[in-house]
Specification:
Strand content of chain A: 25-35%
Largest sheet of chain B: none
Number of strands of chain B: 0
Order of helices and strands of chain A: EEEHEEHEHHHHEHEHEEHHEEH
Structural class of chain B: mainly alpha
Number of strands of chain A: 12
Oligomer: heterodimer
Strand content of chain B: under 5%
Shape of chain A: globular
Number of helices of chain B: 15
Radius of gyration of chain A: 19 Å
Largest sheet of chain A: 6 strands, mixed
Chain lengths: 261, 326
């Protein structure tokens, strides 16, 4: 279990995270939602130590992150940030092989090659194994990055907007992959998503952030509520239940005009 | 298919490398007409040339590797320290040292002290400059280029101002110190500096796998457990030291790093720093020693830098036009 205790972070004067306390539950998909600038990405950055927090501690299975070396952390927790431009020419295999770096330090043994093959097979990329990343479609590329994370073989996986630039088909495919990671491989996945309906459909647990604070946290069914979401997004939502699943609908401008009239 | 072509390229580079080295050691025997050369003289010339060869090879390797690592740190294929004004820093340092101390000072005339003084000054200046650049500009290519151009222009103007008010003797010693002068390398100095240079090269080689990860960018690298900021600090010091030492030893080699690194990336199509280090070093050596041979054969009409810039510039133009990408 990952426990976050009193984390604060600021860019210059602006406070981005204010005293965040959070427990991430094992073997579940936790979705982080919130408006732009609510601090979701910053929180993921702090947990994955891309950013150093101003205050607070993070415990992973009861151990303080600060007491671990960066390569030890990388064996427990992997992270994929939004938009990852890589300006070197890599094949899918090369990229996935980098996932073994925390274990192999770059000198790949047989066990590493096996793990790489496993990850590639798991994400159905066998045919693209020797294709260069820049020749892949957006969905395939994102799968290749997930394969890298999988090869890293960590219990905890943090994904910062993995659905960015993916169309509906690939977005759903990606979330399906994450569900399989949790169900079949017993991973714990934390994912930042913008689309509330995706969170509603695929997440087990939702953490809602606003202005650097966690304003609501709970099982998906409890968070997708008009009262909660209206407060989180400062928007007038319309929530319906379709086939037993809650969906949020947009208010179009003509409707809001009508309500004003 | 591509693999076969790569192997052919590699073989060709290795072959050229050996030719150039052998030619540098022995070609003088055939082109200069000595009537009867005694073994004694032969050995003396050969050992002198061997030391020059080693000095050139090690300097070329330092310049090339530092360019390669600098490009990995800044995540692009255009910038090298030379392009960001390192040569101007060198010339400015030399000018300032002579100007402040005077050319008769023992600090200038003693080659060891002069070497230590100029390389340490340069290393300190470049570490502080590039440190702030890497921190502030967040690898923004345009900003870094602008910064480099401004630094280079600023220092050049400063140098030309100081050189105008210098006396001719001082000007002469600055001029002598700032051109590539392989034939006048102090062999004593080479022997003392060589261990330091080898330690730096060994450090680059030791860190090669970490550089592979660094090339993925900060986010991925940190995620994979690389201590990115520490590696960046160490690399910056290594790069500055390599350039300072090699420049103080043989003079500024402007284009060499850019050219050798890009050529090796074209030839190998690899991202592995281990391979890139070997290939780019060999290409660098081929160009530097080949250039020096040309200079000798043409009766010292010009300096090596001119040859390197001439062929290197043309080659880079060719590469950019052919590949159409950077």
């Amino acid at each position: 279990m990952i426990t976050i205790s009193k984390i604060s972070q600021a860019y210059k004067e602006k406070r981005i995270l204010k005293n965040i306390d959070l427990e991430i539950q094992d073997q579940k998909i936790t979705a982080l939602i919130g408006a732009n600038g609510a601090g979701k990405s910053t929180l993921v950055g702090v947990i994955s130590r891309l950013l150093t927090p101003l205050e607070g501690e993070i415990f992973i299975d009861g151990v303080d992150l600060n007491s671990l070396s960066s390569s030890e952390i990388a064996k427990k927790l992997s992270v994929l940030k939004q938009s990852n431009p890589i300006n070197i020419r890599l094949s899918v295999y090369d990229l996935v092989a980098f996932g073994r770096y925390p274990h192999s330090k770059g000198f790949l043994k047989q066990i590493d090659h096996n793990k790489i093959e496993e990850a590639i097979t798991y994400l159905n990329l066998q045919e693209e194994k020797h294709t260069y990343l820049d020749q892949l479609s957006g969905g395939q590329k994102q799968r290749a990055f997930i394969a890298m994370i999988l090869a890293q073989d960590t219990d905890y996986i943090f994904l910062d907007e993995p659905l960015n630039n993916l169309d509906m088909r690939y977005a759903v495919e990606m979330m399906g992959i994450l569900q399989r990671l949790v169900k079949e491989l017993h991973k714990t996945v934390v994912v930042v998503v913008h689309d509330i309906n995706i969170a509603s459909a695929f997440a087990d647990h939702i953490v809602a952030m606003k202005d650097g604070e966690i304003v609501f946290e709970g099982p998906t069914i409890d968070v997708i509520e008009k009262r909660v979401l209206d407060h989180v997004f400062d928007h007038d939502f319309c929530i319906e239940c379709v086939n037993g699943q809650k969906v949020c609908l947009y208010k179009t401008s003509s409707e809001s005009e009508r309500t004003i009239v | 298919m591509q693999l076969v072509k790569q192997h052919k390229n590699m073989l060709m580079i290795g072959f050229l490398f050996i030719i150039v080295v052998v030619a540098y050691l022995f070609l003088w025997m055939f082109t200069h007409s000595y009537d009867a050369i005694s073994t004694d003289v032969f050995v003396r010339i050969l050992s002198r040339r061997s030391i020059h060869l080693i000095a050139m090879m090690v300097s070329a390797i330092l310049v090339v590797l530092s360019s390669l690592i600098f490009q990995t740190m800044t995540h692009n294929r255009i910038l090298t320290p030379s392009i960001l004004g390192f040569d101007s820093i060198f010339i400015a340092t030399q000018t300032m040292i002579v100007f402040v101390l005077g050319n008769t000072s023992s600090l200038i005339s003693n080659p060891f002290i002069n070497f230590a003084l100029s390389s340490i000054t340069m290393a300190v200046i470049s570490v502080s400059l590039y440190q702030s650049m890497l921190k502030k500009f967040n690898n923004n290519l345009a900003l870094m280029l602008l910064f480099g151009i401004v630094i280079a222009t600023l220092l050049r103007s400063m140098v030309s101002f100081i050189q105008t008010i210098m006396n001719p003797d001082e000007f002469q010693s600055v001029a002598a110190a700032t051109t590539v002068t392989i034939t006048s390398i102090n062999t004593q100095l080479v022997i003392y500096v060589l261990p330091i240079m080898l330690v730096i090269i060994a450090s680059y080689v030791y860190l090669k796998k970490q550089y592979d990860v660094m090339a993925l960018g900060r986010n991925h690298a940190v995620g994979l457990g690389l201590n990115y900021d520490k590696l960046q600090r160490i690399s910056l010091i290594l790069v500055s030291l390599s350039l300072a030492i090699s420049t103080a030893l043989v003079g500024p080699l402007s284009f060499l790093g850019l050219m050798a690194v890009n050529a090796s990336k074209e030839f190998t199509h690899s991202f592995k720093h281990g391979l890139l280090m070997i290939v780019s070093s060999m290409i660098g050596i081929i160009f530097l020693i080949g250039g020096q041979l040309l200079v000798e054969q043409t009766g010292f009409i010009t300096s090596v830098t001119v040859f390197i810039s001439l062929f290197g510039g043309l080659y880079i133009l060719f590469l950019i036009l052919k590949e159409n990408t950077l």
